[in-house]
């Protein structure tokens, strides 16, 4: 059995949900014409992302929506049903008690909706971290898991999501081109390269393929798929994100860590791949999982004293 999936990179318009939803609709229409069954959009692509750090709580409350019965999620559900496609997209969620989360929603043609609250949230002190993993069934006899951006950086999160039965992990991001005090990772991309992308696409694409983008991702992202024997769908923002330039690099990875489809285009783009689900029957990562020794892993649950809150961990001079 195979299932056709798509990963999208696009430049969100900060705070302009109607504009961003229109872009999502356009890609959904394109994907449906190519018989795609699952399409994955970036983290916070409905609301915009890095500008959130400048908003106070009342402004975030105004931007946020409930997941259940929210206008954006209602539109995603309508698109899922109209085009017979499962859609994943990110936004700021306002919970019933007023708490705010960086959340990712998945809507399906049968009218069901699932959501994941980012476990490692740092962009705003007003956003809470989620405390649950998210794995669920789909109409395609495939289980999806969700890990948002920084969630994927911690190997424990990918392993637990796989152990809970995920066949495919959706990995929506806003990354690449991130400033850092560590010269060994990423780094800022000159805004002028993005502004001149149409007249000089080679220079900006070289940056996107280099250590600030693809080169950084390939140090760790394929291993999350390979070590856990799962497919990975990496979706990312591209272009201007407040005062940084996101690198896109949308890609789809198989359970052996092989890239099935990718892009380094300096602009909105979509990549498509057919996932051969027979690769999930027996692969290296799953065989490694059978060799686990859980009796040895109790130290993983014991605090070391080095743990920090997420804002300090991300922005405290320790790197990205």
How many helices does DSSP assign? 10
* Topology pattern, helix = H, strand = E: EHEHHEEEEEHEHHHHEEEEEEHH
- Give helix % range: 25-40%
Binned strand content = 15-25%
Total strand segments: 14
Distance between the termini: 38 Å
- Please state the overall shape, judged from the principal axes of the Cα atoms: globular
Oligomerization category of the chains in this entry: single chain
Mean pLDDT: 96
How would a textbook summarize the main sheet? 6 strands, mixed
Strand neighbour order, sheet with most strands? 5-4-3-2-1-14
Supply Rg.
19 Å
Q: Return residue spans where pLDDT drops below 50 for at least 5 consecutive residues.
A: none
Indicate the structural class. alpha/beta
Key words describing this protein structure:
alpha/beta, globular, 27% helix, 6-stranded mixed β-sheet, 320 residues, 14 strands
Topology diagram in text:
Layout: E1 2-9, H1 17-33, E2 38-40, H2 57-63, H3 71-83, E3 86-94, E4 100-107, E5 113-117, E6 135-136, E7 144-146, H4 155-163, E8 168-173, H5 191-195, H6 201-209, H7 214-217, H8 221-228, E9 231-236, E10 238-241, E11 244-247, E12 251-253, E13 259-262, E14 269-276, H9 284-290, H10 310-315
Parallel strand pairs: 1-2, 2-3, 7-8, 8-9
Antiparallel strand pairs: 1-14, 3-4, 4-5, 6-7, 9-12, 10-11, 12-13
């Amino acid at each position: 059995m195979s299932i056709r999936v798509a990963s999208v990179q696009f430049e969100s318009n900060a705070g302009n949900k109607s504009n961003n939803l229109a872009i999502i609709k356009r890609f959904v229409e394109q994907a449906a014409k190519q018989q795609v069954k699952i399409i994955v959009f970036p983290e916070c692509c409905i609301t915009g992302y890095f500008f959130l750090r400048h908003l106070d709580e009342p402004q975030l409350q105004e931007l946020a929506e409930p997941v259940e019965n929210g206008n954006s999620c209602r539109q995603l559900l309508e698109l899922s049903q109209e085009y017979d496609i499962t859609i994943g997209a990110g936004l700021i969620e306002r919970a019933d008690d007023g708490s705010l989360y960086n959340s990712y929603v998945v809507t399906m043609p049968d009218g069901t909706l699932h959501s994941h609250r980012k476990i490692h949230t740092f962009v705003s002190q007003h956003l809470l971290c989620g405390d649950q993993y998210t794995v669920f069934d789909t109409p395609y006899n495939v289980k999806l898991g969700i890990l948002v951006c920084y969630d994927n950086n911690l190997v424990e999160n990918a392993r637990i999501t796989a152990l809970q039965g995920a066949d495919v992990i959706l990995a929506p991001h806003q990354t690449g081109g991130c400033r850092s005090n560590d010269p060994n990772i990423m780094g800022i991309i000159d805004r002028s390269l993005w502004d001149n992308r149409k007249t000089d696409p080679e220079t900006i694409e070289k940056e996107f393929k280099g250590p600030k983008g693809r080169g950084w991702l390939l140090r760790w992202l394929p291993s999350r798929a390979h070590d856990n024997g799962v497919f990975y769908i990496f979706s990312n923002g591209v272009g201007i994100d407040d005062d940084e330039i996101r690198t896109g690099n949308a890609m789809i990875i198989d359970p052996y860590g092989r890239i099935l489809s990718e892009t380094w285009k300096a602009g909105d783009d979509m990549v498509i791949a057919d996932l051969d689900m027979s690769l999930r029957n027996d692969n290296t990562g799953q065989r490694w999982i059978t060799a686990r020794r859980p009796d040895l892993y109790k130290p993983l649950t014991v605090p070391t004293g080095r743990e920090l809150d997420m804002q300090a961990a991300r922005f405290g001079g320790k790197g990205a």
